[in-house]
């Protein structure tokens, strides 16, 4: 950087990552270069929004008597386009911070998200706020003249060819605002044609809330966009194409929305809302720094992005705009959190969104299935945080189950409708994946009796299942916890269990002693048909999957012992009982018990405590079996 006075010209180098981004902008990023105009108009609109807002909260800033507007001028001879606004403007230092240093716009995060798909990559521009630099796709150089409203500083002039450096110096400008002058490349001269610029404004910026002026073929300026915000128009007057364009241009939505909710509330409380339910989840849906997609306006004046106060966390996937007539224009986020008007709007919006989802679930099941695959785990969070709407949410939640494939989902209502007439509870199993839980030994008795079991395999399920508790008078019961009580369905097994408990009493005590410190009890089970043993938790204790999730989050989990349940009708247990009856101190018995316990861990997707010891036990058992069958082992054939 040149060592000059702050008011003189300074030459400054772009940062390394800024150079990378500029190179991508010019050579590889956009499929359509024409989007540069969209980006500049969007920036101008933001500057006008900021001025209107700051003029209400800062007495030193006055928006002036001039109409807030964007003016575009074309010079065919000089091959330049000038985009001007009378918005907030910038000081010299703000220019350096916000334009000279691309890193402030999030370019590092942007570069990390880059892929080889140009169309997808160009969509990332709006997300990271670096679209200004798209001007270098069509320009040999760019000049920016800006003056900050409410500041005594003179205007600042920023210039760059988009290569390795830029310059900044003092300049002059009538009034606050910003002018961006593009010196077009020879091959991009089509952008100085009035019809071309007009069509691009209609295509990309028709919903900007400020008038965009462009000289017509007679040189007279005229407004070329629709200045009435889309959400303020009657729904009957808005086309599906206009809804889609608004979603893409204003809300940075790059998928096809699944559903649109356009409402106007009048009477005691007045507000307009235009909300979209997306078809694809954003990359930061579960990030700690995740954003909400709803913008708040008051009397058509932009107040804030990412307005978390308008919708609960579990509806954060919703994008849209809410414009209130009943809030003060100078409202802050702190007062927003305590404002009764916001609470009333929030309650109404939640009701409308849940109502729309119910409508989709009932009338468009395939569409709802797409929604659930993208946002189901997020919607389930509502069961834990929104007791007021619990009943509605219970009708909307879906689960995989033993009654369908991995691509099928069932509601609680559907489950209950399929229950056996003599079944009194709703059964579920939790785990990391369908592949693990559907092979669980805990399901064996349910499969044998054709009892459906819900698969709760989303991490959030462990937290919300307790909030569900019961549905339609039916309790939700885990197949992995407590004494299994199937009522009349399990009468046959219960009778057999009582006989086995007497017969296996001493062996059960011996197994418990061998596994002292690892299991709390050893019980005869009725839930197993093909497996020799399984592990269960006590009725109110934390399950194994929940423990695993808590540890993965770095939480301290109190040590708890589980119950080993054994299948008295399994050949392995019968042989163990025979060995124990013949010799209670049989040395092989201890090894067999440890193997039984470790295999029960493996069957539910857990790690054995000592893999080397487990491997040694298996090898020893194989060698003994091999010796008994008379296998002579390897021979040296001549």
Description:
The chain is an alpha+beta fold. The chain folds into 4 domains: 214 residues, Histidine kinase-like ATPase, C-terminal domain (Heat Shock Protein 90, 2-Layer Sandwich), CATH 3.30.565.10; 133 residues, Ribosomal Protein S5, domain 2; 70 residues, Rossmann fold (3-Layer(aba) Sandwich), CATH 3.40.50; 131 residues, Four Helix Bundle (Hemerythrin (Met), subunit A) (Up-down Bundle). It has a 9-stranded mixed β-sheet with strand order 1-6-5-4-7-3-2-8-9, covered by helices on one side. A 6-stranded mixed β-sheet has the order 16-15-18-17-20-19. A hairpin with a 2-residue loop joins strand 19 and strand 20. The N and C termini lie far apart (85 Å). The N terminus is likely disordered.
What attributes characterize this protein structure?
alpha+beta, Heat Shock Protein 90, Rossmann fold, nine-stranded mixed β-sheet, six-stranded mixed β-sheet, 38% helix, 19% strand, disordered N terminus
Topology, number of strands: 23
Write down the oligomeric state. single chain
Q: What is the name of the CATH architecture of the largest domain? A: 2-Layer Sandwich
Main β-sheet description: 9 strands, mixed
Which percent bin holds the helix content? 25-40%
Number of domains: 4
Distance between the termini: 85 Å
Number of helices: 22
Shape: elongated
CATH superfamily of the largest domain: Histidine kinase-like ATPase, C-terminal domain
Largest beta sheet: what is the strand line-up?
1-6-5-4-7-3-2-8-9
Structural class: alpha+beta
Cα-based radius of gyration, to the nearest Å:
34 Å
Briefly, what CATH class of the largest domain?
Alpha Beta
Unreliable segments (pLDDT under 50, ≥5 consecutive)? Answer: 1-5, 103-107, 118-129
- Global mean pLDDT: 84
Beta strand %: 15-25%
